[in-house]
Amino acid sequence: MPPSLTLLDRLRPSLGFQAGTLAISVAAATLALSVAYTHTKEPIAQALSADTLASLAQVLPQGSYDNDVGADTLAAQRNGKPIVVHLARRGGAVTGVVLELAERGYSGDIGLVVGIQRDGRVSGVRVTRHTETPGLGDKIEKAKTDWVLDFNGKSLADPTPERWGVKKDSGVFDQFAGATITPRAVVKGVKGALDLYATHRDLWLASPPPR
Amino acid sequence: MADIKQLARDGLWDNNVVTGQILAMCPTMAVTATATNGLGMGLATTAVLVASNMLVAALRNFIPSEVRIPIFVVLIASLVTLVDMAINAWLHDLYKVLGLFIALIVVNCAILGRAEAFASKAPVLDSALDGLFMGLGFTLSLTVIGGIREILGSGTLFSQAHLLLGPAFSFLEIQFPSAGSGALLMILPPGGFLVLGGLLAGKRLIDARAARQRDVGAAPAPSAA
Asked: What integer pLDDT is reported at residue A189 of this predicted model?
């Protein structure tokens, strides 16, 4: 047996060694985590903002804007909760808006980005985050089914307000077998975005570009 | 050097994390609504299990047995957090698929269980192999449970596999046309318990039959008298 082991054997039962080992382990773990945090903070933030930008680009018509939509924002409120409004501009004039909002689903919030054209028609909807039942409610993701594309081109006038719901509620949008609450929440969120746009349209469209 | 065959047999069948040790029930129930999710959770756990077993085995001579549990917990939790941050930062597309699973691995007692039962008493290489086979056994169980629930509940198998494994694996995705929408119960939490119960009963039956055959083979043939 190497001598270092016998020394270890003598040290191991002592209270100081035990406390010291624990302290060193925790210190080493803390050090490793802080180093890793400082090194990954920037790439993670970049990846997240790239995600947001990608979903913004998906809900706006191609070529309808030439500004930095991610940074050109207004603050608004919906049901007392703050939401973010992105403005899409071409040549300085607002061509459309994208609302980032959340609607309560079957289990937790469903994050939505809703693109609305100047004339009040939906240009696109994407779900950015959710915790709905895998295999049932997750059909709202574009990666899984094309269901969210049903919103494209819809407005407050088409369908009429009483038809803005899932088919079970005599609306025009499909629900999924076994999951009604999830699509109902998404429909409600999109309708809420359109209502907000109708209320604040003039203010938002006239807002000057950020300097 | 331990016997690889024995390690493999232990991890994949005899001492399987789910059907043998009945550990890690929380992630097992939570993610097995589809076979693809089971596979993703299993593979992520395998990677962490190999790394944590090697780390614990390398440090085993320095860790006093009185404080070993808190030290294991610190080591495993830090390791999982490091993996989580690294994948989020540099493999962000993979993180969008596996991120949910990685957070669940921290609370997976199977990893602490292997550190305590195996890696704290065995050399690094043996511990790595033990982690590998335990992880693969876990993956196998989760994929089977997920597959059964998915076939009965949704009428599909390995749906969305291309999101986890890449477009080349789209061929795994099967849709059973006659199944319709399937039995909703199987996708909801009770379905997980039903399938797990069936799986445990099946393993006991097979083990009991194997034991009977061994007894018959080893004992002298019953005499006609």
From this structure: 94
Give contacts of B88 with chain A, Cβ < 8 Å: 40, 44, 47
Residue of A132, A161, A182 whose CA lies nearest to A172: A161
ipTM here:
0.72
**One domain, residues A122 and A196:** yes
The SS3 call for residue A75 is strand
CA separation for the pair B225, B219 (Å, rounded): 16
Give the residue ranges of chain B where pLDDT is below 70. Answer: 1-2, 100, 178-182, 218-225
* Judgement on whether residues A10 and A102 belong to the same structural domain of the protein: no
Total domains present in chain B: 1
Average pLDDT in the A36-46 region? 92
Its pTM surpasses 0.80: no
Assigned domain for A51 exists = no
Q: How far apart are CA A204 and CA A96, in angstroms?
A: 10
Spatial contact of A135 and B153, defined as CB atoms under 8 Å apart: yes
- Mean pLDDT calculated for residue range A173-202: 91
* Claim to verify: residue A25 and residue A92 sit in the same structural domain: no
Asked if the structure places residue B159 within a domain, the reply is yes
pLDDT digits (tens, 9 = 90+) for A79-112: 888 898 999 999 888 999 999 999 999 888 899 9
The CA distance from B184 to the nearest CA of chain A, in Å, is 6
Flag whether B134 is in a domain.
Answer: yes
Beta strands per DSSP E along A36-183: 73-78, 81-90, 93-104, 109-117, 122-129
Beta strand A93-104 pairing with A109-117: antiparallel
User: Residue B180 domain-assigned?
Assistant: yes
Q: What is the DSSP string of B40-78?
A: HHHHHHHHHHHHHHHHHHHHTTTS-GGGHHHHHHHHHHH
Contacts A178 to B, Cβ<8 Å: 181, 184, 187
Specify whether A85 is located in the same domain as A146: yes
- The answer on A171 and A124 residing in a single domain is yes
Cβ atoms B46, B143 nearer than 8 A: no
- Taking an 8 Å cut-off on Cβ atoms, the answer to whether A40 and B86 are in contact is yes
Residues from chain B that touch A19, judged by Cβ atoms under 8 A, are 67
Whether A190 contacts A111, CB under 8 Å? no
Model pLDDT, residue B225:
44
B80 belongs to a structural domain: yes
